[in-house]
Structure formats: C-alpha cells, structure tokens
Amino acid sequence: MSRRFDQRRSLAAYSLMACFAMVTPAFGQEPPTPSAADVSLARSLASEGVQLADAGNCAAAIDKLERAETLYHAPTILGRLGECQVAVGRLVMGTETLQRVVRETLPAKAPKAFFDAQVRAKKVLEEALPKVGRLRVHVDVPPVGPPGVRMALKIDGEPVSLAVLDVDRPADPGTHQVEVAAPGFRTAVGETTIEPGASGSVALRLEPDGVAPGAAVAAAPWQGQPPPGAPPGPYPAPPPAASESKGSSKTLGYVALGVGGAGVVVGSIFGVMALSKKSSLDDTCKVKSDCPPTAQNDIDALHTDATVSTVGFVVGGIGLAAGLIVLLTSSSSAPHATTGLAVHPVVTPGSVGAWGSF
User: Fold this and answer.
1) pTM beyond 0.70, yes or no
2) CA 110 to chain centre
3) Span 133-208: which CATH code?
4) One digit per residue, pLDDT tens: the chain, 358 residues?
C-alpha cells in the first residue's frame, strides 16, 4: 500500500511538472517572464511542497509552496498552498488564497490539472469559510486627552489599520491579543478567544499617562471631583490622612503621660522610704563619723532607695513633659512650639526630688 501511495505522490508531482512545461507564465495581464532558472527552481520547490502536503506535513510544505508560487504562478501550486494554510489554522489567509484560485479565469487551452485545481479549491473553500471567526475591537479615548490623538493598533503583534475599529474583522479561531498605544497615554492591552465560526470582541480604554489610578484622587483638593487632566469619575473622597496622624500622635502622648506618672509614683514611694531611713539614722548617728556598725545596712538601704527615687522622678519628669508636648503639638486648636526640656535630680541630706523646665 505504501508503494501505491508513493506512486500516486510521484504521479502528482510529475503532473505538476508537466503543467509547468505546457503553460504560459500567467493568464490575463502578462507579468515579467521568469528566467529558465527560476522556472526550474519553482518546479523543484513545488514538487517538494506537494509531497510534504500529501504526507500531512503542511507546516513544512507552506514554505516550499510559497516560494514556488512567488517564482512561477500556477493554480495547482496556489490551491495546495491554500489547503495547507487552512490545515494549520490560518483560515483567513487560506480562504483568501483559495478565493484567488477559484476566481481566476483560465483560457480554454489551459491544462486539465488547472481546472481540477479550481474544483478542488472550491470544495475546500466551502468547508473552511464557515469556520472563520470575527473579531471586533473598540477603543475609548477620554475627552480630556489632546485633540487629534494618533493611535497605533496591533493585533497579535502585527500593526493594523484603524479602519478595523468597531467592525467585525475576519479572524482565525484561537486567542488574539490586541494592543493600542498613543502619545500621552498608557498602552492598553486586551485579549479574547474565538471559537471556530464564532465572534469575539476586545474593548480598550486609553488612560492619560502619568495619572496613576488612585493617586489623582488622593491629590484632589476637593471631595468627589477629578483633578485636571484625569478621566471622568466617579471619584471617592480622599482618605483622612491628617486625622489618622493626629490620632496616633495623641495615643503616643497619653502613653508618655502614663509612663511619666508611673515614674513619679515610684520616685515618691522610694523617696518617702529614703526619708524615713534618714530620719532613723539621724537619731542613731548623732555624728556621721560616729555611726555604730549595726547602722551600715540602713545606710546602704538609704542609698538604694534614694537612687531608685531619683531615677523614678527623672523618668516621670521626662515622660510627663514629653506627653504634654506631644498632646499640645498634635492639637490643631492650640499649636505650641517646643523650646526645650531640662530635668535635674536633687538629692540633699534632708530631701530627695527633681526640678525641670520646658
């Protein structure tokens, strides 16, 4: 069976070569006469292309058949080229190629293979046309853009005319990507998938370049209104950034006051304890240089309590001062400038405390 297939394939190739030898370069308007070398090369390429197509390898056959048709036109070559284009999914191009074969006017003396090619092309065309899809592209340009926007449109990476906008353009089945660009606008991209014989659409909108969504809203000095140069709304109200900042500042102020108050309480407690121990030592030690050894523990405890009291008052003073400053500066009704803060501990033989200015 394989041998019969090879014989039929060889017969088709030989018939194609015979057609090359019997016909003139074209019908109707006479194109430039190809050289003998071009005719010979076209015959070889066409033979290889037909053999690849018969073997089911249309992807490789297309290149051979396209080159052969470029060098030397023949309906047999163009018809097989259209068939392969349809077979690999290039329905729009393939049906147009087959239309050329079907519509070509052949002279009465044309080879029978040419008439057979037209019949075959018509049959393939009738089966392929219902599978061609439709793609509609719409581009919306905001009225705030510059007048006379010059758009550049691409479909599947290929530049296309703006005349295809808002009409059903023939398209191959599959996924298609649409891209539109214009000076002063961000590039808009969209895609759609078209089933065989079905329609798809892509709607794009050109947005002014440099106006990021949301950023323009936050910068608007009036609520619910678009800034100059931005597309029409609606726009939400800007976030209350200032109120949030004040709220967090007041929280920090109250925390600082709490810490300061705790420091003052600790300082006061240990200060009272230190004063009590000092009063007791004054009764025991009439003269500092003549204290009994048993009073050493009380002396050490006095020093510890005095130190803790001093630290407590220092922390308390700083916390209270910082809290007041934060609360005063965060209030919009009574703003104050911070001039400075100074806290000084005081420890004397008769008292423990602190003084400061701010």
Assistant:
1) no
2) 59
3) 2.60.40.1120
4) 444 434 444 445 444 444 444 444 444 445 678 899 999 999 999 999 999 999 999 999 999 999 999 999 999 999 999 999 999 999 999 999 999 999 999 999 999 999 999 999 999 999 999 999 999 999 998 765 556 678 999 999 999 999 999 999 999 999 999 999 999 899 999 999 999 999 999 999 999 987 544 444 344 444 445 555 555 555 555 555 555 555 677 788 778 778 777 877 877 887 778 777 777 766 667 666 667 666 667 777 767 877 877 887 787 788 778 777 877 776 644 444 444 445 455 444 444 454 555 4
Q: Which residues contact 219 (CB under 8 A, 6 or more apart)?
A: 227
User: Which among 96, 90, 13, 101 has a CA at the least distance from the CA of 59?
Assistant: 90
Q: Among all chains, which residue has been given the structure tokens 């793609």?
A: 135
The amino acid sitting at 151 is: M
Q: How far apart are CA 136 and CA 308, in angstroms?
A: 82
Q: What does the alpha-carbon distance between residue 274 and residue 262 come to, in Å, rounded to a whole number?
A: 18
Please enumerate in sequence order all residues whose Cβ is within 8 A of that of 76, keeping only pairs 6 or more positions apart, or say none. Answer: 16, 19, 46, 113, 114, 117
Q: Which residue type sits at 182? A: A
- How many whole angstroms separate alpha carbon 75 and alpha carbon 332? 88
Choose which CATH entry (1.25.40, 1.10.101, 3.30.2420, 3.40.50) describes domain 2-130.
1.25.40
The helix/strand/coil state of 155 is: strand
